[in-house]
């Protein structure tokens, strides 16, 4: 058995538990991986476990704002094995429907999810000759022959630094903390960020507040008839082209920034879907540009994205200069017992989407079962 240098309390004093695979995370990427591990014949608990830091099923979807909807119909938003049920209403499925689907998916395949079980570190063994990694968690230490990190990005909201941020007297929050427009009623609100989140929050907040939308570059709007089905097709075509050694088309990024969901189209029709260049600094009462223009503001909403939530992998020392872990597909180049699933194009085109993560989860499990077979 290994001895772990980390942890405290009762869980840390328990002897390590040996399993073949530990999946870190509890959202769509973790569940897709769990599905393929189950299909590969690994036994729940003894063969694999899924450690979810969340209090309940649903992953990041549990924390989305209530009005958020998918970009695709239910039948184009499914994990492997089971198609997402229809919503029974017109339009794209809302976030609550996705949470219900992920909850039932987990139950349908009887996946061995432990929660809340927060993983604090993944380490190579110290002073021992073994083919396992030590996974330290709030419920104890696991010794795994392979680890799949599927924590996504929700745990690391990103806010860029601008001069004067600490002097601003109004409200500042990241889109991760946005729950609806009501708290902004009657205020002057600056929405920062040119992606889908920025456009959708602008559309919603502008119905109750005076809004200013600022972006690093002018946003590019997709045609009204383009939704997630077309985006996934583009991502798939890019993957095939790259695999064939052809030039990188840029995939979805080459199409545009903003999907024209109904709320965004309605904002366009109201004449509020206009972006200003990024401001230079914050002031106590608003934001200011280099030419001296000043916009009074009571609140600033940072729709500036997220970063991969990889802190638990820090003891392995794998991160490159860009903050990412270099991979071949999903497998870490510096630690072949580690796979990363669901973080975006750098771990597989479309892998941060419901319909796209299945492919990369399958590829990861194929490599893992080959690894386990070679060490039987």
SSE topology:
Elements lengths: L8 H5 L3 E8 L3 H12 L8 E4 L43 H14 L4 E2 L4 E5 L9 E5 L2 E10 L21 E4 L13 E5 L3 H10 L4 E6 L12 H16 L18 H9 L4 E3 L3 E3 L2 E3 L5 E3 L2 E4 L24 E2 L2 E2 L5 E3 L16 H18 L2
Parallel strand pairs: 1-2, 1-6, 2-3, 6-17, 7-14, 8-9, 8-14, 9-10
Antiparallel strand pairs: 4-5, 5-6, 11-12, 12-13, 15-16
Helix pairs in contact: 2-7, 4-6
Helix content: 10-25%
* Main beta sheet: 7 strands, mixed
Residue stretches low in confidence (pLDDT < 50, at least 5 long) are 1-10
Assess the beta-strand content as a share of residues: 15-25%
Instruction: State the name of the first-level CATH class of the largest domain.
Output: Alpha Beta
Give the N-terminus to C-terminus distance in angstroms: 18 Å
Query: Do you know the CATH architecture of the largest domain?
Result: 3-Layer(bba) Sandwich
Helix and strand sequence: HEHEHEEEEEEHEHHEEEEEEEEH
Structural class: alpha/beta
Q: What spatial form do the alpha-carbon principal axes imply? A: globular
Name the CATH superfamily assignment of the largest domain. FAD/NAD(P)-binding domain
Mean pLDDT score: 88
Compute the CA-based radius of gyration: 22 Å
């Amino acid at each position: 058995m290994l001895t772990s240098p980390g942890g405290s309390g009762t869980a840390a004093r328990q002897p390590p538990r040996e399993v073949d695979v530990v999946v870190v995370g509890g959202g769509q990427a973790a569940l897709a991986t769990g599905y393929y591990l189950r299909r590969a014949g690994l036994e729940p608990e003894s063969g694999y476990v899924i450690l979810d830091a969340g209090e309940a099923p649903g992953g990041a979807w549990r924390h989305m704002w209530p009005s958020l909807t998918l970009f695709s119909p239910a039948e184009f938003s499914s994990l492997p094995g089971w198609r997402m049920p229809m919503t029974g209403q017109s339009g794209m499925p809302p976030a609550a429907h996705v949470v219900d689907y992920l909850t039932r998916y987990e139950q349908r395949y009887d996946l061995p999810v432990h929660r809340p079980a927060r993983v604090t570190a993944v380490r190579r063994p110290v002073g021992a000759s073994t083919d396992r990694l030590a996974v330290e968690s709030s419920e104890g230490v696991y010794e795994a022959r392979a680890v799949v990190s599927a924590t996504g990005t929700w745990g690391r909201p990103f806010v860029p630094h601008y001069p004067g941020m600490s002097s601003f007297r109004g409200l500042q929050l990241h889109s991760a903390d946005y729950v609806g427009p009501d708290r902004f009623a009657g205020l002057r609100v600056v929405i920062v960020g040119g992606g889908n989140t920025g456009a959708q929050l602008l559309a919603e907040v502008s119905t109750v507040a005076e809004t200013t939308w600022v972006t690093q570059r002018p946003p590019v709007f997709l045609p009204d008839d383009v939704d997630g089905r077309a985006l996934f097709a583009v991502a798939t075509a890019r993957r095939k082209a790259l695999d064939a050694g052809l030039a990188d088309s840029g995939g979805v990024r080459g199409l545009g920034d903003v999907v024209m969901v109904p709320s965004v189209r309605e904002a366009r029709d109201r004449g509020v879907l206009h972006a200003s260049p990024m401001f230079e600094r914050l002031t106590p009462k608003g934001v200011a540009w280099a030419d001296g223009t000043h916009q009074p503001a009571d609140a600033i909403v940072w729709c500036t994205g997220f970063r991969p939530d990889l802190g638990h992998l820090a003891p392995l020392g794998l991160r490159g200069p860009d903050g990412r872990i270099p991979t071949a597909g999903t497998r870490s180049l510096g630690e072949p017992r580690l796979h990363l699933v669901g973080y975006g194009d750098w771990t597989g085109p479309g892998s941060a989407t419901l319909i796209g993560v299945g492919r990369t989860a399958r590829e990861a499990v194929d490599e893992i079962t080959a690894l386990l077979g070679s060490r039987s």
